[in-house]
Specification:
By secondary structure, this protein is of the alpha/beta class. It has a single domain, classed as Glycogen Phosphorylase B (Rossmann fold, 3-Layer(aba) Sandwich), CATH 3.40.50. It has 8 helices and 11 strands. A 9-stranded mixed beta sheet has the order 3-6-7-2-1-8-9-10-11, sandwiched between helices. Strands 4-5 form a two-stranded antiparallel ribbon. A hairpin with a 2-residue loop joins strand 4 and strand 5. It is globular and about 45 Å long.
Protein backbone atom coordinates (compact mmCIF):
# COMPACT_ATOMS: atom_id res chain seq x y z
CA UNK A 1 0.00 0.00 0.00
CA UNK A 2 1.71 3.17 -1.25
CA UNK A 3 -1.09 5.59 -0.32
CA UNK A 4 -1.04 5.95 3.45
CA UNK A 5 -2.56 9.42 3.99
CA UNK A 6 -5.67 10.82 2.28
CA UNK A 7 -7.04 14.35 2.59
CA UNK A 8 -10.76 14.70 1.84
CA UNK A 9 -11.94 18.16 0.77
CA UNK A 10 -15.67 17.58 0.82
CA UNK A 11 -18.68 19.77 0.17
CA UNK A 12 -21.24 17.95 2.31
CA UNK A 13 -21.19 15.32 5.04
CA UNK A 14 -24.22 13.65 6.60
CA UNK A 15 -25.37 14.12 9.43
CA UNK A 16 -24.29 17.77 9.33
CA UNK A 17 -26.47 18.37 6.25
CA UNK A 18 -29.32 16.45 4.62
CA UNK A 19 -28.57 13.11 3.00
CA UNK A 20 -27.61 13.19 -0.67
CA UNK A 21 -25.23 11.31 -2.95
CA UNK A 22 -22.51 13.81 -2.08
CA UNK A 23 -23.11 13.98 1.67
CA UNK A 24 -23.24 10.18 1.90
CA UNK A 25 -19.93 9.88 0.06
CA UNK A 26 -18.46 12.55 2.34
CA UNK A 27 -19.56 10.53 5.36
CA UNK A 28 -18.88 6.92 4.42
CA UNK A 29 -15.90 7.04 2.05
CA UNK A 30 -13.43 8.57 4.56
CA UNK A 31 -14.56 6.04 7.16
CA UNK A 32 -14.08 3.14 4.73
CA UNK A 33 -10.62 4.36 3.75
CA UNK A 34 -9.64 4.85 7.40
CA UNK A 35 -10.83 1.36 8.32
CA UNK A 36 -8.43 -0.04 5.71
CA UNK A 37 -5.53 1.37 7.70
CA UNK A 38 -5.00 4.71 6.00
CA UNK A 39 -4.70 7.99 7.89
CA UNK A 40 -7.28 10.61 6.92
CA UNK A 41 -8.17 14.27 7.42
CA UNK A 42 -11.62 15.49 6.39
CA UNK A 43 -12.88 19.03 5.73
CA UNK A 44 -16.21 20.64 4.82
CA UNK A 45 -17.62 24.19 4.84
CA UNK A 46 -19.42 25.26 8.00
CA UNK A 47 -22.67 26.01 6.20
CA UNK A 48 -25.16 28.09 8.16
CA UNK A 49 -27.53 25.13 8.27
CA UNK A 50 -25.07 23.08 10.36
CA UNK A 51 -26.36 22.94 13.92
CA UNK A 52 -23.27 23.68 15.99
CA UNK A 53 -24.75 22.85 19.38
CA UNK A 54 -26.37 19.57 18.38
CA UNK A 55 -23.26 18.42 16.54
CA UNK A 56 -20.89 19.72 19.24
CA UNK A 57 -18.69 21.89 17.03
CA UNK A 58 -16.02 23.91 18.73
CA UNK A 59 -13.42 26.34 17.47
CA UNK A 60 -9.78 25.29 17.23
CA UNK A 61 -8.06 28.46 18.39
CA UNK A 62 -4.54 27.39 17.36
CA UNK A 63 -5.70 26.93 13.75
CA UNK A 64 -7.95 29.99 13.51
CA UNK A 65 -6.97 33.64 13.31
CA UNK A 66 -5.55 33.96 9.80
CA UNK A 67 -7.00 36.43 7.32
CA UNK A 68 -7.36 35.38 3.68
CA UNK A 69 -7.31 38.21 1.15
CA UNK A 70 -9.73 37.76 -1.74
CA UNK A 71 -10.28 40.62 -4.18
CA UNK A 72 -8.34 42.98 -1.87
CA UNK A 73 -10.63 42.23 1.08
CA UNK A 74 -9.58 40.51 4.32
CA UNK A 75 -11.73 37.57 5.38
CA UNK A 76 -11.02 35.93 8.78
CA UNK A 77 -10.51 32.16 8.67
CA UNK A 78 -12.23 30.28 11.50
CA UNK A 79 -11.59 26.56 12.02
CA UNK A 80 -14.03 24.39 13.93
CA UNK A 81 -14.03 20.67 14.60
CA UNK A 82 -16.47 17.93 15.49
CA UNK A 83 -16.41 14.15 15.70
CA UNK A 84 -18.60 11.42 14.25
CA UNK A 85 -18.23 8.97 17.10
CA UNK A 86 -19.63 5.94 15.29
CA UNK A 87 -16.99 6.35 12.59
CA UNK A 88 -14.17 7.46 14.91
CA UNK A 89 -13.78 10.30 12.45
CA UNK A 90 -12.95 13.95 13.07
CA UNK A 91 -14.27 16.63 10.73
CA UNK A 92 -12.72 20.08 10.32
CA UNK A 93 -15.04 22.92 9.32
CA UNK A 94 -14.02 26.05 7.42
CA UNK A 95 -16.05 29.01 8.67
CA UNK A 96 -16.33 32.73 7.97
CA UNK A 97 -19.05 35.21 8.85
CA UNK A 98 -19.22 36.69 5.34
CA UNK A 99 -19.34 33.46 3.36
CA UNK A 100 -20.98 30.83 5.56
CA UNK A 101 -22.56 32.17 8.74
CA UNK A 102 -26.39 32.06 8.48
CA UNK A 103 -26.11 31.10 4.80
CA UNK A 104 -27.12 27.86 3.12
CA UNK A 105 -25.22 25.95 0.42
CA UNK A 106 -25.55 26.61 -3.35
CA UNK A 107 -28.85 28.49 -3.04
CA UNK A 108 -30.58 30.62 -0.40
CA UNK A 109 -33.91 29.98 1.31
CA UNK A 110 -35.70 31.32 -1.80
CA UNK A 111 -33.90 28.97 -4.15
CA UNK A 112 -31.68 31.71 -5.58
CA UNK A 113 -27.98 31.11 -6.10
CA UNK A 114 -25.67 33.23 -3.99
CA UNK A 115 -23.92 35.74 -6.29
CA UNK A 116 -20.58 35.16 -4.54
CA UNK A 117 -20.55 31.34 -4.76
CA UNK A 118 -17.23 31.35 -6.60
CA UNK A 119 -15.66 33.56 -3.92
CA UNK A 120 -16.97 31.15 -1.29
CA UNK A 121 -15.33 28.24 -3.13
CA UNK A 122 -12.02 30.12 -3.35
CA UNK A 123 -12.10 30.96 0.36
CA UNK A 124 -12.93 27.37 1.22
CA UNK A 125 -10.13 25.87 -0.89
CA UNK A 126 -7.49 28.24 0.41
CA UNK A 127 -8.78 27.84 3.97
CA UNK A 128 -8.36 24.07 3.80
CA UNK A 129 -4.86 24.29 2.33
CA UNK A 130 -3.70 26.86 4.89
CA UNK A 131 -5.06 24.70 7.71
CA UNK A 132 -3.32 21.56 6.42
CA UNK A 133 -0.08 23.56 6.37
CA UNK A 134 -0.62 24.48 10.02
CA UNK A 135 -1.29 20.83 10.85
CA UNK A 136 2.06 19.95 9.23
CA UNK A 137 0.42 16.91 7.70
CA UNK A 138 1.50 15.65 4.27
CA UNK A 139 -1.15 13.67 2.36
CA UNK A 140 -0.32 11.27 -0.44
CA UNK A 141 -3.70 11.79 -2.12
CA UNK A 142 -6.05 14.75 -1.94
CA UNK A 143 -9.63 13.86 -2.90
CA UNK A 144 -11.86 16.83 -3.77
CA UNK A 145 -15.65 16.57 -3.98
CA UNK A 146 -17.94 18.82 -6.01
CA UNK A 147 -17.97 22.43 -7.19
CA UNK A 148 -17.11 23.87 -3.77
CA UNK A 149 -13.70 22.17 -3.93
CA UNK A 150 -13.10 22.70 -7.64
CA UNK A 151 -10.43 25.40 -7.37
CA UNK A 152 -8.37 23.39 -4.87
CA UNK A 153 -6.55 21.36 -7.58
CA UNK A 154 -5.47 24.59 -9.28
CA UNK A 155 -3.98 26.02 -6.08
CA UNK A 156 -2.36 22.72 -5.05
CA UNK A 157 -0.54 22.45 -8.37
CA UNK A 158 0.47 26.13 -8.60
CA UNK A 159 0.39 28.54 -5.64
CA UNK A 160 0.98 25.81 -3.02
CA UNK A 161 3.09 23.37 -5.04
CA UNK A 162 6.30 24.16 -3.14
CA UNK A 163 4.72 23.86 0.31
CA UNK A 164 5.81 20.54 1.89
CA UNK A 165 2.29 19.14 2.51
CA UNK A 166 1.43 19.40 -1.19
CA UNK A 167 4.73 19.00 -3.04
CA UNK A 168 4.21 15.29 -3.74
CA UNK A 169 0.45 14.96 -3.32
CA UNK A 170 -1.75 13.57 -6.10
CA UNK A 171 -5.14 15.17 -6.65
CA UNK A 172 -8.38 13.36 -7.48
CA UNK A 173 -11.60 15.18 -8.29
CA UNK A 174 -15.11 13.74 -7.90
CA UNK A 175 -17.48 15.36 -10.38
CA UNK A 176 -21.16 15.83 -9.58
CA UNK A 177 -23.95 17.32 -11.68
CA UNK A 178 -24.58 20.22 -9.28
CA UNK A 179 -22.71 23.44 -10.00
CA UNK A 180 -23.32 27.22 -10.02
CA UNK A 181 -25.24 28.16 -13.16
CA UNK A 182 -23.62 31.53 -13.74
CA UNK A 183 -20.53 33.49 -12.81
CA UNK A 184 -18.69 36.60 -13.94
CA UNK A 185 -15.50 35.69 -15.81
CA UNK A 186 -13.72 38.91 -14.79
CA UNK A 187 -14.76 38.59 -11.15
CA UNK A 188 -13.73 34.93 -11.08
CA UNK A 189 -10.26 35.59 -12.46
CA UNK A 190 -9.72 38.56 -10.17
CA UNK A 191 -10.74 36.62 -7.07
CA UNK A 192 -8.60 33.62 -8.05
CA UNK A 193 -5.43 35.75 -8.09
CA UNK A 194 -2.99 34.51 -5.46
CA UNK A 195 0.79 34.11 -5.55
CA UNK A 196 1.72 32.69 -8.97
CA UNK A 197 -1.92 32.54 -10.07
CA UNK A 198 -2.27 35.91 -11.78
CA UNK A 199 -4.16 37.19 -14.80
CA UNK A 200 -1.35 36.30 -17.21
CA UNK A 201 -1.22 32.74 -15.89
CA UNK A 202 -4.99 32.29 -16.04
CA UNK A 203 -5.20 33.76 -19.55
CA UNK A 204 -2.66 31.20 -20.73
CA UNK A 205 -4.67 28.21 -19.56
CA UNK A 206 -6.47 25.91 -21.98
CA UNK A 207 -9.72 26.51 -20.10
CA UNK A 208 -12.76 28.41 -21.36
CA UNK A 209 -13.66 30.69 -18.47
CA UNK A 210 -16.93 31.60 -20.16
CA UNK A 211 -18.11 27.99 -20.03
CA UNK A 212 -20.95 27.29 -17.57
CA UNK A 213 -18.91 24.25 -16.54
CA UNK A 214 -15.70 26.21 -15.93
CA UNK A 215 -15.29 25.07 -12.30
CA UNK A 216 -15.34 21.40 -13.24
CA UNK A 217 -13.09 21.99 -16.25
CA UNK A 218 -10.61 23.90 -14.14
CA UNK A 219 -10.56 21.02 -11.67
CA UNK A 220 -9.87 18.48 -14.44
CA UNK A 221 -7.04 20.63 -15.82
CA UNK A 222 -5.12 20.35 -12.53
CA UNK A 223 -6.13 16.90 -11.25
CA UNK A 224 -4.29 13.60 -11.54
CA UNK A 225 -7.48 11.53 -11.68
CA UNK A 226 -11.24 11.96 -12.13
CA UNK A 227 -14.18 10.15 -10.54
CA UNK A 228 -17.68 10.08 -12.00
CA UNK A 229 -19.39 10.48 -8.64
CA UNK A 230 -22.99 9.96 -9.79
CA UNK A 231 -24.38 7.49 -12.30
CA UNK A 232 -24.19 9.14 -15.74
CA UNK A 233 -22.84 12.42 -14.34
CA UNK A 234 -20.85 14.89 -16.42
CA UNK A 235 -20.23 12.84 -19.62
CA UNK A 236 -18.53 15.82 -21.32
CA UNK A 237 -16.15 16.10 -18.39
CA UNK A 238 -15.33 12.40 -18.59
CA UNK A 239 -14.56 12.84 -22.30
CA UNK A 240 -12.33 15.82 -21.51
CA UNK A 241 -10.43 13.82 -18.90
CA UNK A 242 -10.04 10.91 -21.32
CA UNK A 243 -8.64 13.28 -23.94
CA UNK A 244 -6.09 14.43 -21.35
CA UNK A 245 -5.21 10.78 -20.58
CA UNK A 246 -6.26 11.16 -16.97
CA UNK A 247 -7.02 7.99 -15.00
CA UNK A 248 -10.80 7.67 -14.75
CA UNK A 249 -13.08 5.92 -12.32
CA UNK A 250 -16.56 5.51 -13.80
CA UNK A 251 -19.39 5.60 -11.28
CA UNK A 252 -18.40 2.84 -8.82
CA UNK A 253 -21.72 2.63 -6.98
CA UNK A 254 -22.02 2.71 -3.21
CA UNK A 255 -20.87 -0.81 -2.38
CA UNK A 256 -17.25 -1.75 -1.70
CA UNK A 257 -16.18 1.87 -1.28
CA UNK A 258 -12.83 1.06 0.27
CA UNK A 259 -11.92 -1.38 -2.49
CA UNK A 260 -13.06 0.74 -5.46
CA UNK A 261 -11.54 3.98 -4.27
CA UNK A 262 -8.53 2.43 -2.58
CA UNK A 263 -7.51 0.74 -5.82
CA UNK A 264 -8.05 3.98 -7.73
CA UNK A 265 -5.92 5.94 -5.26
CA UNK A 266 -3.12 3.43 -5.71
CA UNK A 267 -3.46 3.56 -9.51
CA UNK A 268 -3.29 7.35 -9.65
CA UNK A 269 -0.41 7.48 -7.19
CA UNK A 270 1.57 4.80 -9.03
CA UNK A 271 1.00 6.20 -12.52
CA UNK A 272 2.13 9.64 -11.45
CA UNK A 273 5.39 8.14 -10.14
CA UNK A 274 6.35 6.80 -13.57
Amino acid sequence: MNVKKVLFITQEIVPYVSESAMSSAGRYLPQAIQEKGREIRTFMPKWGIVNERRNQLHEVIRLSGMNLIIDDTDHPLIIKVASIQAARMQVYFIDNDDYFHKRQMLVDENGEEYPDNVERAIFYARGVLETVKKLRWCPDVIHCFGWMSAVAPLYIKTAYKDDPPFANAKVIYSAYNEKPSSLSVDDFKRCLSFRSVDDAFLSGLDVDFSSPDVLNRLAVAFSDGLVQAEDGACPDLMDLAAARNLPLLAYPGTDSLAESYGEFYEKVFSESQK
